[in-house]
Design a protein that fits this description.
Elements (H helix, E strand, L loop, with lengths): L1 E2 L3 H9 L8 E8 L13 E9 L6 E9 L2 E9 L6 E5 L19 E9 L6 E4 L2 E4 L4 E3 L2 E10 L7 E8 L4 E6 L7 E6 L8 H13 L2
Antiparallel strand pairs: 1-11, 2-7, 3-4, 4-5, 5-6, 7-8, 7-9, 8-11, 9-10, 11-12, 12-13, 13-14
Amino acid sequence: MKEFASLKELISYCALCPQCQGERELDFGVFPDEFLYPTSSKSNRVSAKYLGYNEDETLFNIIIAAQYEYQAYDLAFKVDPTTNQIVECLLVPELKIEGQELTELEPPYFSFDVYGRCKNSCSSTVQSAEVLIDIRNKEVKSLGIETETIHINDYDHTHDVLYTVKQDYASSATLVHRDVYAGGVDTLRLELIDLPFSNYTELLRRIELLFAYS
């Protein structure tokens, strides 16, 4: 996993495309999966009601809509994105998970992830790991990226996709897929390597060398 020291660094990374330097649109999901459909009741579920910065970006707000045993609850957290500390936590006393207060849960029960997709033609995507909302210790943790995918197009001619690079940080691997428009379909699996995504000419040269010497 590609790790970050703060929530602000993680979100900033997800929001910026490394190839075109354009803005990536962010989407947030909330967990846990086991909360959705436990054997006791299929009415239980959680969803992201709102995740985002306040106006001056000094706080990151997390509002989770939870339905448990046919009752609806809102759980709200305000996080300092530079220190990862939960500075305000609005919980519903009536909501208990298997009889436990939310502040007693160990390990952390709720989490969220970040998915980003570039709005431009390179369509890069990034998927974070699950960020744990540790209510007991009033912090968010496990700040990292699991995968990132970059499409490299033929901008000089047809604009077809020549190569697709997937940085699999979870397994420390780089996968480079060559499309038919680049001269043949093939995929290289390498140990995780850094590539100059913001320098299109150098990026193409490096990838062509990887295939030439594979």
